[in-house]
Amino acid sequence: MTPLLRKLFGMNWLLIALMLALAIFGVIAIYSCTHMRETAAYHTMWRKQSVWVAISTVGFFVVSLINYRWVRWGALPMYLLGITFLILTLVMGITLEGAKSWLALGPVQFQPAQFAVLSGVIVLALFLSQFRTLHPILKVLAAGVMAGAPALLILLQPDFGETMVWAPVVFIMLFISRVPLRYLIVIVLLGTIALPLGYHFKMKGYQQRRIISFIDPEIDPQGASWAVNRTLIAIGSGGFSGKGFDAPNSEVALGYVPRTTVPNDYIFAAVGEQWGFIGGLALISAFALLLMTCVFVGFNATDELGLLLCTGIAGLIFTHTFQNIAMTVSLMPVTGVPLPLISYSGSFVAVIMFGLGVVNSVWIHRKDRSGAPAKERAL
């Protein structure tokens, strides 16, 4: 059997099945909440998402076939490219909903923050795996600089949601790399102290209103609290089994849930209303199984680089999923974080599938140490 065929047959097919099932369901969910709109731009959303899913699937298999240990040579260029994109976004980015977080390269528009966070995960995994014996304080400080550079640029957009997603991922990776717990507790305390400072000095007015409306949903029911209140009504009205696919006269179809954001920020509200408790539980269960698969691959990796890559990417998917669903059901403030593989965001689908391709590569090459340095091959 040739090496290519061996890799193809050795893929983690559970990971692939879950990824494709979620991506296809995302296209269906986007269609169900946009096709009835009068504007032509909404009618094409599900088609654009389908194209992104198809292209990203090809990219997933290409990344899967490349030995993940090659990130030693690609991590730093990816990280620097992500930083460059973030700087370009601040200079010439597109402003949407009060944040300059989109960048246009020809006909393609994307959010560089999502690519920058993924490249940050990869470069941080490489650093923590290469400097295992470094003193914990130096390790934390160096990791803080590497994670802080993109975080600061993302915060300047301002995109508080993506910054919130990035912080727990860094914490998870430091924990996996065996940084003593006392240092992690100090990081949490410093982060807690910084939150009120960020609220008063970095957040814009609409972001502060989201925080206030989260604490007291009745303070502005026709303004900042409107969207979350309507998503709760939509999910509650779905009941146990939902109103059915493409149900007429629903909260989503009638536009009570903001039609401009329901395909991305509030896609879970559409799922809950149309497929009910059963549909929502099935979706969360699929994400849980996907995350467990990533963690399983990580703990079966033969080196610390593979472990950190898998757990970092799993952490990235988990924090996005938790934040999106939690803000939809009013357990977290609204931050505009998309639901991985489900929300309308083609570039984010590409980022997530690239990350899952790295996880699949760790699984395929877990017994192949030909790409590892001599010291690791000797272990």
Q: Please, how many helices?
A: 15
Beta-strand fraction estimate: under 5%
Describe the sheet with the most strands: 3 strands, antiparallel
**Which structural class matches the secondary elements?**
mainly alpha
Integer tally of domains: 1
Q: Radius of gyration from the CA trace? A: 21 Å
Helical amount among residues, as a percent range? 55-70%
> Could you state the order of secondary-structure elements as H and E?
HHHHHEEEHHHHHHHHHH
Mean pLDDT: 84
| Beta-strand segment tally | 3
Explain how this protein is built:
This protein is mainly alpha-helical and 379 residues long. The protein has one domain. Helix content is 68%, strand content 3%. The protein has 15 helices and three strands. A three-stranded antiparallel beta sheet has the order 1-2-3. Strand 1 (94-96) and strand 2 form a beta hairpin. Helix 4 runs parallel beside helix 14. It starts with a helix and ends with a helix. Mean pLDDT is 84; it is low at 373-379.
Please render the helix and strand layout as text:
Blueprint: H1 3-9, H2 13-34, H3 40-43, H4 45-65, H5 71-92, E1 94-96, E2 99-105, E3 108-110, H6 112-130, H7 136-155, H8 160-176, H9 181-201, H10 205-215, H11 226-237, H12 267-299, H13 304-328, H14 346-364, H15 374-377
Antiparallel strand pairs: 1-2, 2-3
Key structural traits:
disordered C terminus; 379 residues; three-stranded antiparallel sheet; mainly alpha; globular
